[in-house]
C-alpha cells in the first residue's frame, strides 16, 4: 500500500511487516530505505535497495553495511518488450526470506 507520504507499507493481515521509502525525493538512481515494523524510530534503516532502472538492476543490502543479501536484474527479450511481460533474474543469498525480496522488487518496479 502506498501512503500519502510516498512510503510503501507492507502488511501481513492487519500486522505491519515493514515500510519502504525513497532516500531522497529527487533521485537519478533509485535508493530505498527499508524499516522493519519494530524499528519505530527509523534512525538507521534495516535494509536498503540501490538500483538503476535504466540498467534494470538493483542490489539489496543489510542496513547501512556493504553486505549484499540479494541482487536483481531484468532479462530483456523481444517478448518482454512487445508483450510487456518482464522477467527478473534474482539472486537471493542464504538465510534471506525470498518473499521479502520479492516484495521489495515489486515496490521498486511500481516506483519506476
From TrEMBL:
Top-rank taxon: Eukaryota
Recorded coiled-coil stretches:
none
Cited InterPro entries: LOR, LOR_sf, Tubby-like_C
Q: Could you say which protein family the record assigns here?
A: Belongs to the LOR family.
According to UniProt, the name of this protein is: LURP-one-like protein
Amino acid at each position: 500500500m502506498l501512503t500519502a507520504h510516498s512510503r510503501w507499507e507492507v502488511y501481513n493481515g492487519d500486522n505491519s511487516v515493514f515500510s519502504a521509502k525513497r532516500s531522497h525525493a529527487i533521485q537519478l538512481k533509485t535508493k530505498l530505505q527499508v524499516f522493519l515494523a519494530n524499528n519505530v524510530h527509523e534512525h538507521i534503516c534495516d535494509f536498503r535497495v540501490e538500483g538503476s532502472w535504466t540498467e534494470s538492476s538493483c542490489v539489496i543490502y543489510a542496513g547501512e553495511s556493504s553486505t549484499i543479501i540479494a541482487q536483481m536484474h531484468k532479462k530483456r527479450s523481444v517478448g518482454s518488450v512487445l508483450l510487456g511481460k518482464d522477467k527478473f533474474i534474482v539472486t537471493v543469498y542464504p538465510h534471506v526470506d525470498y518473499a521479502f525480496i520479492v516484495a521489495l522488487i515489486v515496490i521498486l518496479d511500481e516506483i519506476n
